[in-house]
Amino acid sequence: MPFDMNLVQRGARLRRSPFFAATQRHGAKGYTVYNHMLFPIAFDELEAEYWHLLQHVTLWDVSVERQVEITGPDAFAFTNTLTPRELARCAVGQAKYVVVTAEDGGIVNDPVLLRLGENHFWLALADGDVLLWAKALAARAGMKVNITEPDVSPVQIQGPKAKDVVRSLFGDAVMKLRYYWFLETKLDGIPVVVTRTGWTGEVGYEIYLRDGSRGDELWERIMEAGRPHRIRPTGPSDIRRIEAGILNWGADMTLEDNVYEVGLERLVDEGKASDYIGKAALAEIRRNGTARRLAGVEIAGDPIAFNPVKWTVKSGGTPAGRITSAVWSPRLKKNIGYAMLPAPLAALHSELDVEIPGSGERRARVVEKPFVDPDKSIPRA
After folding, report:
1. Residue 320 is part of which domain span?
2. Per-residue pLDDT tens for 284-334?
């Protein structure tokens, strides 16, 4: 049966995506609220969706990745102040995974940035109000920029058969896309941007719909193209993204954390000459080091369910940190996850205890992350 939305809310304050009716027809079993929009989180059991992602191909409604669009004569200069990455190295037609940083180096968000023109950018956002952040900064910057939320709504096609589905939709030209590049095109007259990106660590694409009135058409067209390849709509796979070392803003990192604490220092171009927000703070953190680190952990015992809250981590019986994300990996046959810990305890092979509500304490140890495919050879294939 379709999910009864009256169990969630009444009224129109929470937005529906252009694919909402399609997710209802295809049997979404639950929704969460993300960027002020209803987000389908499951169509089947999480492990069943995980195996389908690994073996076939899946379709996700990720319209909750709201876009901040930055245009105008000073769009490049302004956008370059938002992030430690040097955007002069981002070509038109290329995407970059970036962090947006606060004055103290905290992570405001970790969007995928798309450069559509010399002075035209999209930030595809995690769950946070970057539109308001950017507007406030622009009001003080004295630059000529326009900052809006455009009519753009992405879906993801993920899994080993993703290339077959996308080829049948767009032809051989899309097969030339390199990892983290994109093209602008149309599908049966529907305007879209197709990117070689995803949140899985698998082969994947995102299709950004540029006309929200045609969401149902696009969804069913993708389902039709994917039918020979056993496509199924699913929710996001936290199992697979944890295996891949992908972090979830709001859980594994927040505004209170910086890139050096969560292992994203690769997103700081230390030779960036121009100023950006948080530059001085990050330079000081780099010099002095961090008091805590986000570590990979294995948790002993029977399979655990995905943690709904941050679990307490103990060392020698004393609370020392917290589990930010943890889940059972069916193929690794281990409970895996991330823990924010004091730096000495984040060292490899450190022994810990995790307090799981309703289940008692479990032994845990710090291990290397990512847990699967550290060179990202799968999504780059």
Report:
1. 291-372
2. 999 999 999 999 999 999 999 999 999 999 999 999 999 999 999 999 999
